[in-house]
């Protein structure tokens, strides 16, 4: 049990910031990301022997957090028929663990699937095959989404820089 606890603690320390960055980039809302990532880590602890053997435990955390956010959003939408409180990004310019605010704004211009691919491929540095498996899509689809996303991000960030 003590070995299990130490393994999980080391994983948590090494993965927490990367997972939070990836989920925040995907959701565009730091508070929602923190809630989802915390719950995902709690679920990982409960299943740690199995998650420790997963090909990419970080990807499992991110995917679980994203799934929980979607479930929470759907439940909330059924209960309160008003605009989603998570639609607008909440950015903190002083937080150095998060991506640059201009990057976050550019990420929000992407469709959700492209944001998820960027979060996994760029922020977690997963390969296309692992990203595809995590999102339940083909590796070629990951490549296509990443290509479109980087083209859009480049255009968005270049125009933002030129406006300064």
From TrEMBL:
RNA polymerase sigma factor 70 region 4 type domain segment(s): 103-152
UniProt keyword list: DNA-binding, DNA-directed RNA polymerase, Sigma factor, Transcription, Transcription regulation
NCBIfam families recorded: sigma70-ECF
Coiled coil: none
Family statement: Belongs to the sigma-70 factor family. ECF subfamily.
PANTHER family documented for this protein: RNA POLYMERASE ECF-TYPE SIGMA FACTO (PTHR43133), RNA POLYMERASE SIGMA FACTOR HI_1459-RELATED (PTHR43133:SF8)
Top-rank taxon: Bacteria
Organism of derivation: Actinoplanes lobatus
Protein name: DNA-directed RNA polymerase sigma-70 factor
Domain RNA polymerase sigma-70 region: 16-78
Entry GO terms, CC: DNA-directed RNA polymerase complex
């Amino acid at each position: 049990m003590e070995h299990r606890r130490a393994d999980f603690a080391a994983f948590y320390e090494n993965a927490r910031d990367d997972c939070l960055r990836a989920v925040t980039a995907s959701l565009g809302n730091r508070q929602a990301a923190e809630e989802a990532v915390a719950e995902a880590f709690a679920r990982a602890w409960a299943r740690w022997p199995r998650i420790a053997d997963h090909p990419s435990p970080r990807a499992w955390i991110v995917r679980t957090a994203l799934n929980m956010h979607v479930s929470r959003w759907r439940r909330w939408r059924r209960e309160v028929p008003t605009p989603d409180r998570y639609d607008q990004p909440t950015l903190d310019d002083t937080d150095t663990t998060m991506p640059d605010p201009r990057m976050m704004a550019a990420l929000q211009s992407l469709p959700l699937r492209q944001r998820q691919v960027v979060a996994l491929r760029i922020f977690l540095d997963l390969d296309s095959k692992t990203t595809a498996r995590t999102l339940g899509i083909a590796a070629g689809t990951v490549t296509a989404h990443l290509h479109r996303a980087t083209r859009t991000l480049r255009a968005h960030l270049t125009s933002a820089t030129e406006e300064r």
